[in-house]
Structures are given as C-alpha cells and as structure tokens.
Structure prediction request, 400 residues.
Amino acid sequence: MVSLFWISCAIVAYVYVGYPALMMAWARLRPRPVLDTPASGAPAVSIVIAARNEGQRLANRIDNLLRLEHGGDRQIVVVSDGSTDDTLDVLARYRAAIDIVTVEAGGKAAALNAGVSRAKHEIIVFADVRQVFAADALVELTAPFRDARVGAVTGELLLDCESPGRRPDDRRTRSDRVGQALRAERRAGGDRRRTVESTIADGVGLYWRYEKQIRRCESAVGSTLGATGAIYAMRRSLWAPLPAETILDDVLAPMRAVLAGYRTVFNQKARAFDRAAPDANTETTRKVRTLAGNFQILRLEPRLLLPWTNPVWFQYVSHKLGRLVVPYAMLALIASNMVIADRSLVYAAALVSQCVFYVLAAYGAWLDRRGRIAASRMPPAFAAAWPTAASSDRRGALNA
Prediction:
C-alpha cells in the first residue's frame, strides 16, 4: 500500500505540477518560433459556423463577423443543423452576405462537414455562435499560416472571470476588452441569458489561465494538443471529414494536422470573448463531455498512442492521457492512505489533507445546488437576475 500511495501521489503531482513546470522550462530553453515570412496579402478565408436553434443570437454573431478587419476575401458559411426555431428566418436576412447550408439534425460534426464542403478558400476558420471575436481576430488568426509548417492555429478565448491575476501591464486592458465586447453584444440584441453571473467564476478563471499557459508552452516547443472550439483555423487541405459521432471536433481535427506533420500553434493575439459557465452543474457537464471526448479520440485516432507516428507523443501522454488517469490515481491515493495512515505522521497528515479537500469540495457543491434550488423557487422576474438561474444549455467552448 505504501508503494501504491507514492505512485498515485507521483502521478497526480506530475500531471498538474511536474509536466507544466517541465514545459515552461522546455519552452524557455528550446523554443520553436513560428516563421514570420513577408506576407503577399491577406489570405482568403472561409468562416464556418454550425448552428442549431440559435435564432436569438445569430444576427449579432453574423454582424460581428462581418465587421472584422480583414483585407482578403471572406466567406461566411452558416450551417443550420435541423433548427426548429427562427434560425432560418434570421439567416434569410443575410442571404446576400453569407452562404446558408441546411441539413437534417445530425450533430455538430456532421454540420461542420457540410460547412467545409461549401467552403471555397484554403484557410477555414471555425467559430461558435455564442462568442464574439475581437476586431482583429481574423488578421491574427491567419498570420501564422505564413509559416508553411503551420497547419492549424488556435486563438485565445478570454472569459469574463479572467481579469484577476493577470500581469499588471495588461490586466485592465484585457478585462476591459472582455467587458466591452460582451456589453456590445447585449446592446446588439444578444441572448439575455448571457448577462447572468457565474457562481464559480473565480475557480474557472484560475483553471483556464493555468490551462492556457500550458498550451502556450506546448505551442512554443511544437504543437498544442488541439484547439479552442470558439476560435481556430486550419488549412483546407488538411481537413478530413469528421465521424458523425465526434464529440471534440476542436481536438480531433487539429491533431490530425499534427499527425500529418504540421504544427498546431497558439496565437494569443487572436481573441474571442465569452462568459464562464454559470454554475457547477454546467461546468461538470462540460468536463464530463470533455473526458468522454478524449476517450473517444483514442478510438478514432489510435495513431496518437504511437510515438513513431505522433510528433507530440510525450506531450499527449503527459497532458491528455495523464488527465484521464488522474481520477483513478486519486481514488487509489485516498484508499491506500486510509490503510497506512497510522504508520507515521506524514501519512496521517496526508489523509487529513485529502479529507479536508473533499469536504470543502462537497460543501462548495452543496452551496451551488442550494443556490440553484432557491432560484428555481423564485418568481420569474427575480429568478432572471439570480446568479444560478442561467440556462443549462451552455456546453462551453473549453476542451481542457
């Protein structure tokens, strides 16, 4: 049991502390910068969005995409995935400016396949309806493609809860940009539910900053292990149709580019803005979906497990597979700790620490649940402003 305790402890510590520290050192000592070759002009881009029953938010999103700075040709393809609301009516108002694709309800992956089939240009930008792009997002997202080794680019998703803890020189600027972008969306008629505050904002913001720092380092030494679904782009020539059951298109498609010998890089200058998940229940749903998607990718692309075919095998095993192993390591850690707690003060203190951790986690979950129950019992006028009254349809754009 002692060996099991220390092995489990080492796994958890390596995945969340050791690996990030190693990547930071690697990125500092042996970086692989993206080549900044002279541009002959802005590349032509096709922006693909899959939408299902997004009539309330669609007009504002399309307006946002039409206003983006970009000197080259721009095609916007919106795929209605079996929408039953007024999505098609909203799209009809923009018929002169966008390409409209209608398909039977088959899921996001099938809708993206249909959208890419309609795309005319070599660079394809993928976006969601809920978020908004910064004015220069297209310019920054396409800039790394001047390096012929780059096959995909992921931008930075800025959440409204991220401003605490940022560097002093950009804290106010970044937080102001997030707030201004989201306020502009609401003024333009965006979904009213987006005004709801999150009860877990601090935790989500801290974790997302931590995750993006790892991605920066992975990009600096080679490739990130996927992209942010809210804002990423890739070369049309590297796209392969996604299986209809695909859960994490923003991981599978970029990793296929990596397997083809190209880089997937992170460009923090290409920014999209969003709000954090409104409550713990929504965040839990997102995390379960992400974990299920990562297990699924092992079945869809088993080549990722082979070091001679996966150029970022070490990072993939340490980051993606490590996260899948951690829950089992944590179970083994506390189980073995219970058996050996009486052997020394070290083991006793470790058990107490774990118990405190789980008690606090359970207490936090109880507080969140209590808030949601209280909101459900309020009159509609009050519930709309209650922090946990947000809709649970937000699956999130993070795949961490």
About this structure: The domain at 31-296 is CATH 3.90.550.10 (Spore Coat Polysaccharide Biosynthesis Protein SpsA; Chain A). The chain has twelve helices and eight strands. The mean pLDDT is 84. The radius of gyration is 22 Å.
